Structures are given as C-alpha cells and as structure tokens.
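Here is an idea for our session: we take a single protein and study its fold together. Start from the sequence, derive the backbone structure tokens from it, and show both lines together. Once you have written the record down, we can walk along the chain together:
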Amino acid sequence: MGIPYSQDIEEALTMENIGLSSTSQKFSSEVILDGQKLNKAHALAIRSKHHYIPTSTNQLQRVAGERRFAHSHTSPMTIIGHQSTSSEPSLMLSEPITTLVYCEKNIFLAVAEVVDIHLNLDSLEKLPLDLLKEDTSTVTYQIVDLIPTTQDDDPSLKSDWHSTSHLQPTICTVPGHLIQPINPILSTAKEKPFYLFSSDVLMTSASSLIGQIHTGDIKRIPTVCNEHADGNPTSTQPNKPQPGILRIPIPTFYFIFYFIFLFIFHFSITIYQ
C-alpha cells in the first residue's frame, strides 16, 4: 500500500538532510597535539614512529607479519614452505665442511669453512642437510689451513691434522651436493681453539663425495692451485698447493671410468625398458 505524498513529509526530510549536513561539518581533519594543530595523518606518524617495524617486502612474509630485517640471534632465517625444527640436522655459516677441488690434474679433498648459503637465490644462515641435494642450493666456502698435529695439539694422537685461524684467500661457490658437513673435535688445548681431523675420516668423506658426483659436476669442481705444485699441504711458497688441500688425490681417469660406467648402465636400462 502506498504512502500519500504531503508537503509536511517533504519539509521534514529537508530539515533532516540539513541537520545531517551540519553534523558532518563538525568532523575535522586536524587534531591538537602538544598544543599544536596538526593534520591527523601527521600526528599519527609522530605518535607511531617509535613503534613502527618495517615489514618484509616479500608478499607472503608481509601477510604473515614478519619483519623486513630479522635479527639472526632471535629469528633465524627459515625457508618458506619448509617446517624446520631445532633438532633437524642443518648446515650453518662458519661450520667446517669437506669438498673436492681440482689441482695438479687430479681431484683433491679440501677442508673449508662455510661463508654463504643460497637456496633459490635467497641467502640463508642455515639450511637443512636434505635440501643440499636441491638443484638450486649452492654453498660458498673458504679453504682453511691444515697443519700436522703434535702431541701438544692432541695428547691422544688420534688426529693427524688440525686447523689454524688463518683462512686462504680462495673462495669458491659450488652446488650443495658437492660439499659434505663434518663434525670434527674442537680442541681448546691452546689459546686459540682449533679443529682436529683424522686422515681416516677425511678419506671416508672423500669417498662419500665421489659417490655424490653427477655427470656434469666435473666441470663445476673449482681449480685452486697451479699444475706445477708439488702437493705439499703445508707449503706456502709460490706455485704450491693451498695448505688446506690434503694430498688425498683422486685421479681424473677414475672419473672417466666412473662416468663411462654410468653411461653404459643407464643405456642398458633404456634398452631393457
């Protein structure tokens, strides 16, 4: 049922609109702050400048409310989509590793210190060991000096080598699967702590690294010394191998036969299928 139009209703609506207009004019874009009239946006910025924490420029991290710059001692870097636990074995910066290097037309084992870790072009402070096998993971390392141990260094005489505080200028970046984390004994017998290494353990590490090599990895193993070096791991003279490179040579022809075997093996499987 319709409502009959009347002049009284029209006048009432007109007065209501005027009342709303006068009410809306009472709101102002300015506020009084410390006795000064300021724009609200400016006043809000002043009040919150000491509480503002820049959020991440990454959209997923921003939605999660993460900071743009995380403090490493309170918020260790993690990988989006990966559930990391404190008990999960991980590779961390400054930890010792073993890797393969090319020298004197042979493959040698080197002991190094991790200086950078990347996954999907993101720099990380630590990386779970199972992700080292990913194609997008790389590890940057710096070769360390190793010298033979004495009884003062290791009274048990179970170790053959120990590290020094000196790092070689050689810095290399390799795929994650071309390094192997190690857990040597940390000795505090002297003023500066150092790691103790056993040749048997290092030989085992070299064998393990060989088993992880892919067909195209031979070209990705870095060259770190001259071809005319005499192979003395403690030498620091010109044209000598780096001190951190142990003379545990793995001849190149071994890799040739190894890759030929892999090729024949995969070719046989293809024919059989």
The radius of gyration is 33 Å. DSSP finds five helices and 13 strands in the chain. The CA atoms of residues 231 and 241 lie 6 Å apart. The longest helix spans residues 252-272.
